[in-house]
Amino acid sequence: MMGGMKKRMMNQLLDSGMTEHLTSVLARAEHELLTTAKRMEDAHGTETLGDLPTVEERQTALKGLIEALVTDSVDEVWIKQVAPALLDAPEKADSYLGMSDDEWTDQMANWADFYRENGAEGTDRALAEHHVQSTFGVDLDTFEDRVVNWQRGEEAERIFAGNFRAVRRSMENVTEVAEE
């Protein structure tokens, strides 16, 4: 019942043109800031931003995030948009998203048991560090912060505000170079 209501709300938002307009305005504003920051980086010999998304790519991503918020599928958007830039084998990360402390402790113990059965030694945490590094290409602290402790609202905010924060980091780096 609730799913149907959410779907109707989403369709009303999309059909009204409000979402299209809002995401267009945001995507264009972000692109202007990113382009200016990129020019500033080039002028000062720094590189923080990398490749910039097009206005259309960003608008599509923003619309997808709005739909995900309404349909409670932010985790799927995160796996598609964020995880590939953060993790090796992002498709393997979804089962670890937002685990409870007990689930995570059990998971680390299971990995450790597997490695010990195959001759490895070390604490559960050290063996989990090895597993996460070799499977996902990040250290255990990063994996815990961004995957295990994943929170819908926090990640949605990161996706929405990510380009604005990237511009701020770019400006900070350029400022540091200019002040030297």
Share in β-strands: under 5%
Distance between the termini: 61 Å
Large-scale geometry: flat
Order of helices and strands: HHHHHHHH
Q: What is the helix tally?
A: 8
Mean pLDDT: 90
- What structural class is derived from the secondary structure elements? mainly alpha
Q: State the low-pLDDT regions, or none.
A: none
Task: Compute the number of strand runs.
Answer: 0
Protein model, in words:
There is one protein chain. The protein has 180 residues and is mostly helical. 77% of the residues lie in helices and 0% in strands. It contains eight helices and no strands. The protein is flat, with a radius of gyration of 20 Å. The termini are far apart.
List its traits.
180 residues; mainly alpha; TipAS antibiotic-recognition domain-containing protein
Short description:
This protein has 180 residues and is mainly α.
Set down the secondary structure blueprint:
Elements: H1 2-16, H2 18-44, H3 55-71, H4 74-86, H5 101-117, H6 124-136, H7 140-148, H8 152-179
Helix pairs in contact: 2-3, 2-8, 3-4, 4-8, 5-6
Protein name: TipAS antibiotic-recognition domain-containing protein
